[in-house]
Amino acid sequence: MAEGGRRIAKRWGAVALSLSAHAAVLGALLMSRASSPLVIQESEPIAVALAEPPPKPVEVPAPDPEPSPAPPAPSPSPVPKPAPTPAKARPAIKVHETPPPQTPVQPLVVAKAAETAPLPELTDAQLVGATTAGEGEGGGGAGEVDGAGGRPCDMVARLQTALRRDGRVRSAVAGVHRGKAVLIWNGEWIQSPGEEGRGLASVRQAIAVEVGFAPEACRAQPMRGLVLISLTDGQRIAFGAGAWRWSDLLHAKGAVYSRR
Length: 260
Prior knowledge:
Keywords: Membrane, Transmembrane, Transmembrane helix. By secondary structure, the chain is of the alpha+beta class. The chain has a domain at about 120-250. The chain has six helices and four strands. Strands 1-2-4-3 form a four-stranded mixed β-sheet, with helices on one face. The longest helix has about 35 residues, at about 1-35. Residues about 135-140 and about 255-260 have low confidence and may be disordered.
């Protein structure tokens, strides 16, 4: 214990000695300054030029900040469309049509076309005394000449030659020939089946042409009874009346002839 007290006493003594030394030095310094006179050195004058201060910068007010864009308006949520209500089917309107009064329809009566009888056929007994080609005279009458060189008028041979050469005539006669001579003219041309005109049209026209271009004296030749003309394949046609002339064939009912 005693030794510890000694150490503390030594420390305090050192501290007191240090403080005394510092106080002595400080007092010496203060005394030296107070004894020496204060010398003030004058400095050379400095020229100072006064200048107007620059004008203060004009304060430009800062521009107003751009307003921030407004946020886009929220798109309206789609409103669900109500499902269309199916239209109710309209009830079918029943229309009761009143049928028109039934008018009795008279049946159309179509008159049947008059059936044409086939051309009459002549037996061998009926053809007895008929004039044929090469005889020249007709039924015992006096022979006539054509006036050209005094030749006799053999109109039967003239017609027979022309009709044999005409294919249409042969075809027409074949359609009605049944093995006997067919009568086609008895003062007027006889209606033939299936044809509108009287007589076999092709035969009638061929005879009219030959008679029409024959000499006048021959056309005026008087005839009596029937004339028989023989074609090929045994086909025969006959025409004639009680008393007649060749020109009668041009003017008879049903004749179609025009001499130009």
